[in-house]
Input
Amino acid sequence: MQKTSRVRYIITFLVALSLVLIPVTPASNIALASGIQTIGFEDGTTMGVEGRDGDDDSVEILTVTDELARSGNNSLLITNRTKAWHGPSLNITNSVEPGVQYIISVWVHAKSPDSSTFMLSTQLGEGSAASYNNLVELNISTAAGWVELTARYTFPEDDYITIYVENNSATAEFYIDDIAVFPAAGAGFSADLSLPSLAEVYKDHFLIGNIFSRGDFSGARFDLIRHHFNVMTAENAMKPEALGGSQKGDYNFAAVDAMVDTLEENGILVHGHALVWHSQSPDWLYLNDDGSFLTRSQARANMQDYINTVAGHYAGRMLSWDVVNEAFQPSFGHVPGNWREMLRQGGTGAESSGWFGAYANGANADAGESGADYIYDAFVFTRLADPNAILYYNDFNETEQAKREVIARMTVEFNEKWATDPRNTEPDRLLIEGLGLQAHYWTNNLNVRDVEDTIVRWAETGVEISITELDIPAGDYNNYKALTETEEMTQALLYARLFRIFVEHSDKIERVTIWGIDDPSSWRSQGSPLLFEADGTEKLAFYAVMDPEGFLAGDYNDIRNPQPPEEEPPDEEPEPDEPTPSPAPSPQPEPDDTTEKPSRNILPIILIAISAAAVIYTVVVLVVLKKKKK
Ligand code: XIL
Output
């Protein structure tokens, strides 16, 4: 070989090598803001952590202390809180790069009360443009010692970003230590758009939905949303605490308006969630500054103001609204003579309802008035503010027989009352037009027959049904399990059985919404409840939803690990009375080339191997050339 042609050969090789190497370099390695190194308060200062209530005159008192430490000698003690949203906050605007997924970690140690719920969240934007995104929520006791709150999050472009810790108990005291924010390894999220679109698969049956937060509107994440979902619900951004502001009259629409605009531009419908709720709502709606209940007429005026402003602002743009969310007690075993007995009552506990408490304050019992009256008002105000929206009542534990029944009875009673209400200008139209099964289930104890029974019972009231917040974490309440292979199959079989039922009853079902895109972004992330993994790879649950009949017939069992068959796949429903239908672990049918999907994980290894070989070859050629030159 001539020297010049050898040189040309080497140059060609190096160019080829660089072409091979560029695609395997993770995009996240380019100009990455490196996050926050561990903040452990070891220098005796709060190291930039501030109280959420304000910088200098913050209500919360933050004290660096050596009473306890998760590592080193110090931690930060938070005392003097007076609101659930008070807590330590850290501005990370200049430490994170938009579009890159980060792992956020904060260790907390409860001091008082004995048990309370901690929440790790992020705030994007300030003032009226602020949006608050809850990343993870955990019930923690003092006895548990140091517990990590951790979540993954892809930050959007924003000029103000904080992370913060809240606690549902307004006066809880706690320690924090070892705050860290770092890019998730191989943090890319990619969407495989060659998979069938779920919206397309179910287009003749019902709408298919998911949830959105501010970080979901760019890149592959939004591609995935657009590909699979034709209706979206705000996970937190349209709740009263997000839209209603902390003071009366302090409404915040800017952040949500931009998101709703984008969804509409992409032909995606929006479901409004939620107007009247005991949780995630600002105190001004039903409490005085001293924490006592407003009077019935004050609360009613506030509700009317809130609904007119919010439902009015989005009038004509929402497919439907969850008008009242979770009005009933979480769980109860019998059906009372009057469904009102099972409502959340007024009080101060986490399970009470401020709306009920205020409506009871000044109610004339002799005239038949009670705290329960807020529910009917909420539906009427919403009908009048946005006559186009379909109005829903939405609740959880809806598969419990007694709870299903009282919700059905309330619906019938209010619809009968509305029929003769002078404000009703559409005599043929119901007031409550839809009932939402939240469908927050668990792999340990979901009985799909109970879901079917609820759909059937509720449809008897004449309303449409939606599955509004579906997820199936592994384990059971407050007792998460790891998503082992067996557990993933159990989960997927449950998804398949549910979707089989949804299809059978699709004449009654308007929408099925899954509560989250990928496992780490779920509010119940510890149980890996969703259809996609952190990097956007589809789970078995995806195939179960995409093709429930095929999945139950075993068509997809070799998707991950092709293996020879062992036994027939299950296609039987569990017995109706079976308390915990633990589906059998994956039976493996004949490997089938047509359904087998190449593993995404092998590709980078192959490319790296080719690159390494190329480097060695180039070095050898250079050495040989050098020797020849000598
Ligand atoms: C959850 C969100 O997913 C979390 O991010 C937030 O911290 C708490 O609320 N029922 C509902 C939803 O109606 O609004 C709740 O969403 C889950 C239970």
